[in-house]
Specification:
The protein is α+β, with helices and mostly antiparallel strands. The protein contains 1 helix and 3 strands, in the order αβββ. The longest helix is centred in the middle third of the chain and has 15 residues.
């Protein structure tokens, strides 16, 4: 990996960039997307089921459950 053109500092040519976020196509991209999606659903009041991490539950009122 090389530093982008215009960002090379004199004396630091051997240093490279550190990736701060997962990019599309990388192995960790799906995990980063899933963490973001999970956070949004939690903010909306949904909870993840223990048996299947891909199923979220929303409780409208006591005893009434909707599965997403």
């Amino acid at each position: 990996m090389e530093q982008p053109v215009g960002f090379v500092t004199a004396g630091s040519e051997h240093l490279v960039c550190r990736l701060q976020k997962a990019l599309y196509g990388l192995k960790q991209a799906s995990r980063a997307w899933n963490l973001q999606f999970h956070g949004v659903l939690n903010d909306l009041g949904l909870t993840r089921t223990y048996s299947d991490a891909g199923v979220y539950v929303y409780h409208l009122q006591e005893g009434v459950t909707h599965y997403l």
